[in-house]
């Protein structure tokens, strides 16, 4: 069937169609605002970030410590209740050198997002954060890094209380 | 559990385009009408409609399923919309399958539509909402991050170089030259990929599929109906789907375990014990070139870390032993998210019926597999068709 069809439907538009005013378009910018409650597990996580500490949670059944903390172990679906303070150091699990912003516009200086396995959590348990104070070309998977915190008075109970991670 | 045999009996699609003149509703109508015409059916012959499309935020429309229902032919019919991220296109076919396999309906029209151009300046802006609002979004992430992080992990664990991955983009964009609906068909080289703009290393411009507008539809029917409609039904031999945890930073991204679970479910249902011998043509999800390799491994069609070698040796070429993305894939044909997944099911349907024209793989394939993937790198959906 596909082989016998010469003209598939659909009309691609070109820039010229817009320049020549052939296309009518209606624009709308939503004005939405949300307030997200942190919930039971993440409230403690944020409170400890404000204190300059990372905290995880352990499933005593799976013997797995994860971060960010959560109230249920997704493996065995039992409640997680054993809070565990973690180091603010870790290992780069993977990273990227990123030249585009969230809206696909281009940035001159790259950001280095990374998944960082946190010391004290189980192997493979990491968080998303950024690397800095390092030449992008020098970053490797397996690199040891440490959190760089905002000064105590500037911390607000947010993941951005850690400014970034840097090589140790 | 007694399940009825179900076949795909018709398929239709629009061109995939950067920006279409048609609205989503109009695209849905075009593809649906073409699918019905292809098997000489009318809407009166359709018992139920299954629809797949992206979240409402993409289009700025509340209840997009309802908005699209007219174009999808759902008036006064049982109608259901599904969404599992990029996995939607193949999942919609699974939904159509169980509507019919269950015995509830004899026929089901499955429609997938996407009009990504409405979200401006770029749909990346809508993608940010997939990240956790408290623990991740404050870092101002963008969607390409997670692909780049996964690609780097995959490359590093296996010691695969970028040039080995770039061959997938070259192959698929070339295959797409033979697809009449293709948006980004091109005759490019590995060097072109390696020299293209770095977006989020290791992801470069030509590693990545475009945003697209487009729609695809298929018609599914129970055995007694399918045999009246066509002497070449493509039977659904197996389906599978699986989700991994949304805590994506807590699992190793180098291997898509959830795709393996989805594949095993589908292979079990199809009675397939040696997929590498029994699957003759494959359409894995390829929004990025490394994803085709990643998914071939998850589908157990390549050893872990070995899919790049298969590509280099031509095994996955259209005339290779295991043709992969003979359509041109999403890298070449385009990526209107839900529609792209269903395009893969349609391609397998056309390949098995020997109707793929210039894209036809040699050797009269008997069994083919389509797979999609999505959300926070956590959803795998698989459909196996056979003639």
What are its keywords?
heterodimer, A: 168 residues, mainly beta, six-stranded antiparallel sheet, three-stranded antiparallel sheet, B: 387 residues, alpha/beta, Peroxisomal Thiolase, Chain A, domain 1, nine-stranded mixed sheet, two-stranded antiparallel ribbon, 15 helices, 11 strands, globular
Write up what this structure looks like.
The complex is a heterodimer of chains A (168) and B (387). With 168 residues, chain A is mainly beta. Chain A has one domain (39-167). Chain A contains 2 helices and 9 strands. In chain A, strand 5 (97-100) and strand 6 form a beta hairpin. Chain A is elongated. Chain B is of the alpha/beta class and 387 residues long. Chain B has a single domain (6-121, 210-386), classed as Peroxisomal Thiolase, Chain A, domain 1 (3-Layer(aba) Sandwich), CATH 3.40.47.10. Chain B has helices at residues 24-38, 56-59, 64-68, 88-101, 124-127, 143-158, 162-175, 190-195, 223-229, 257-270, 275-278, 289-298, 307-312, 329-332, 337-352, and strands spanning 6-13, 48-52, 79-82, 107-115, 198-201, 203-204, 213-222, 234-243, 281-283, 367-374, 379-386. In chain B, a hairpin with a 4-residue loop joins strand 10 and strand 11. The radius of gyration of chain B is 19 Å and the shape is globular. The relative contact order of chain B is 0.19. The chains are: A mainly beta (168), B alpha/beta (387). At the A-B interface, helix 2, strand 4, strand 5, strand 6 and strand 7 of A face strand 1, helix 1, helix 6 and strand 5 of B.
């Amino acid at each position: 069937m596909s082989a016998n069809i010469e003209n598939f439907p659909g009309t691609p538009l070109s820039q010229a169609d817009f320049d020549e005013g052939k296309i009518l378009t209606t624009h709308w910018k939503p004005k939405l605002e949300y307030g997200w409650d942190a919930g039971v597990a993440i409230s403690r996580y944020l409170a400890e970030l404000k204190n300059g500490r990372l905290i995880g949670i352990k499933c005593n059944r799976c013997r797995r410590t994860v971060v960010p903390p959560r109230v249920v172990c997704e493996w065995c679906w039992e409640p997680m209740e054993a809070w565990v303070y973690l180091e603010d150091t870790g290992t780069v699990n993977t990273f990227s050198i990123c030249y585009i912003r969230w809206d696909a516009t281009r940035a001159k200086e790259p950001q280095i997002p990374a998944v960082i396995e946190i010391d004290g959590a189980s192997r493979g348990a990491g968080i998303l954060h950024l690397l800095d104070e390092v030449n992008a070309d020098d970053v490797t998977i397996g690199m040891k890094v440490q959190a760089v915190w905002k000064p105590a008075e500037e911390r607000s109970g947010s993941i951005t209380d850690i400014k970034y991670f840097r090589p140790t | 559990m007694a399940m009825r045999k179900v076949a795909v009996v018709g398929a239709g699609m629009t061109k995939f385009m950067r920006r279409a003149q048609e609205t989503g509703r109009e695209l849905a109508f075009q593809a649906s009408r073409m699918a019905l015409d292809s098997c000489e059916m009318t809407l009166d012959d359709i018992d139920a409609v299954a629809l797949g499309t992206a979240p409402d935020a993409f289009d700025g429309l509340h209840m997009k399923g309802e908005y699209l229902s007219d174009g999808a032919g759902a008036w006064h019919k049982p109608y259901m919309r599904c969404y599992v991220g990029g996995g939607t296109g193949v999942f919609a076919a699974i939904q159509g399958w169980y509507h019919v396999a269950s015995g509830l309906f004899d026929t089901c029209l499955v429609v997938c539509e996407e009009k990504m151009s409405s979200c401006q300046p770029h749909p990346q802006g809508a993608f940010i909402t997939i990240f956790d609002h408290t623990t991740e979004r404050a870092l101002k992430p963008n969607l390409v991050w997670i692909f780049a992080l996964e690609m780097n992990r995959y490359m590093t664990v296996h010691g695969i170089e970028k040039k080995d991955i770039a061959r997938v983009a070259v192959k698929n964009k070339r295959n797409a030259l033979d697809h009449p609906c293709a948006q980004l068909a091109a005759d490019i080289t590995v060097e072109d990929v390696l020299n293209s703009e770095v977006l989020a290393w290791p992801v470069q411009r030509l590693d990545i599929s475009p945003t697209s507008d487009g729609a695809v539809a298929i018609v599914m029917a129970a055995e007694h109906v399918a045999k009246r409609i066509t002497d070449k039904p493509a039977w659904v031999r197996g389906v599978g789907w699986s989700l991994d945890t949304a805590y994506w930073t807590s699992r190793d991204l180098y291997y898509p375990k959830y795709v393996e679970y989805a594949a095993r479910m589908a292979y079990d249902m199809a009675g397939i014990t040696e997929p590498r011998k029994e699957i003759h043509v494959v359409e894995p999800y390829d929004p990025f070139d490394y994803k085709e390799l990643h998914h071939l491994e998850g589908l157990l069609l390549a050893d872990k870390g070995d899919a790049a070698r298969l590509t280099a040796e031509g095994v996955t070429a259209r005339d290779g032993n295991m043709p992969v993305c003979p359509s041109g894939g999403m890298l070449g044909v385009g990526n209107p998210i839900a529609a792209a997944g269903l395009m893969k099911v349609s391609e397998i349907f056309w390949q098995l019926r020997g109707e793929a024209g210039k894209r036809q793989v040699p050797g009269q394939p008997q069994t083919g597999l389509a797979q999609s993937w999505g959300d926070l790198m956590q959803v795998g959906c698989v459909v196996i068709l056979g003639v």
